[in-house]
Amino acid sequence: MAATILQGKEVAQSIRAELANEVAELKKQGIVPGLTVVIVGDDPASHSYVRGKAKGCEEVGISSEIIMKDADITEEELLVIIQQLNENPNVNGILVQLPLPAHISEHAVIEAIAPEKDVDGFHPISVGNMVLGNDTLLPCTPHGIIELIKRTGTPMAGKHAVVIGRSNIVGKPVSLLLQQENATVTMCHSRTQNLEEYTQKADILVVATGRAHMIGKEHVKPGAVVIDVGVNRIETGKLVGDVKFDEVKEVASFLTPVPGGVGPMTITMLLKNTVAAAKKQAKQ
Ligand SMILES: Nc1nc2c(c(=O)[nH]1)N[C@@H](CN(C=O)c1ccc(C(=O)N[C@@H](CCC(=O)O)C(=O)O)cc1)CN2
């Protein structure tokens, strides 16, 4: 039987509707959640994601600001901007769009963000709290993936989850969140030998390799839940995932499309984090 397609776009929309109600209630108490996004350089994809973030904020009632800087800004100048945002009480969430130009240390910039305003969940303190299972702002794409899997109704406890890719943004954090849902997790990456041996045993397969159409039906256990995190533009200009969609949909039980699967969840979880950060800061 063909897989059910997990429409992240629709799930994201329903979460946004809930957030809009929550923000309306907060505004009655005088709390207006605020997000500032800093973008450096002129990468068209990054600018498009940032526009999507601002549009999402508008949709749910979050106040947002985009700070655009030329690619020749120095690391020191960028750190001064972050410091000013840390000190601004109207800014509840700060996000620096990645990647940054090579002369700026992503590590130094992320570390400069006040952890309570780290709506990306990338600060070492946020990551440490996530590892410990403490209440913290979770990274958006991994959190969105867990929400999507929950919507399949597939219990994660006791299931074998295989994650392909070990990036700090997706692979590593999603493996931790899957463990916290009591899944048994195997990590695979570019140096894994005999990849199929692992993936064929996965009840839940999360693919974040950044390589277009790398995973075919031969990799997938019949009935598996397959989450495709890839966003690759191929020669034809078309956007495709890391998974061969037409092939894998014939064997999987659930499959996310690209576009319209994990991507829209990323921005929605950012909005959720911004509202959570505003609520927490209002209590302090
Ligand atoms: N500071 C951050 N930088 C980056 C992150 C991040 O979470 N924080 N993630 C990615 C980019 N990203 C958000 O920033 C992002 C990527 C993809 C999508 C998305 O909705 N994709 C669509 C397709 C978009 C298109 O048509 O080009 C989809 O998959 O349906 C949203 C956000 C790296 N940088």
UniProtKB/TrEMBL annotation:
Residues 139-281 form the Tetrahydrofolate dehydrogenase/cyclohydrolase NAD(P)-binding domain. InterPro entries: Aminoacid_DH-like_N_sf, NAD(P)-bd_dom_sf, THF_DH/CycHdrlase, THF_DH/CycHdrlase_cat_dom, THF_DH/CycHdrlase_CS, THF_DH/CycHdrlase_NAD-bd_dom. Keywords: Amino-acid biosynthesis, Histidine biosynthesis, Hydrolase, Methionine biosynthesis, Multifunctional enzyme, NADP, One-carbon metabolism, Oxidoreductase, Purine biosynthesis. NADP(+) binds at residues 165-167, 231. Its EC number is 1.5.1.5, 3.5.4.9. It comes from the Bacteria. Gene3D superfamilies: Leucine Dehydrogenase, chain A, domain 1 (3.40.50.10860), NAD(P)-binding Rossmann-like Domain (3.40.50.720). Residues 6-120 form the Tetrahydrofolate dehydrogenase/cyclohydrolase catalytic domain. It catalyses: (6R)-5,10-methenyltetrahydrofolate + H2O = (6R)-10-formyltetrahydrofolate + H(+); (6R)-5,10-methylene-5,6,7,8-tetrahydrofolate + NADP(+) = (6R)-5,10-methenyltetrahydrofolate + NADPH. Pathway: One-carbon metabolism; tetrahydrofolate interconversion. It holds the Pfam family THF_DHG_CYH. Catalyzes the oxidation of 5,10-methylenetetrahydrofolate to 5,10-methenyltetrahydrofolate and then the hydrolysis of 5,10-methenyltetrahydrofolate to 10-formyltetrahydrofolate. Homodimer. PANTHER family: C-1-TETRAHYDROFOLATE SYNTHASE, CYTOPLASMIC, C-1-TETRAHYDROFOLATE SYNTHASE, CYTOPLASMIC-RELATED. Belongs to the tetrahydrofolate dehydrogenase/cyclohydrolase family. This is Bifunctional protein FolD. It comes from Brevibacillus porteri.
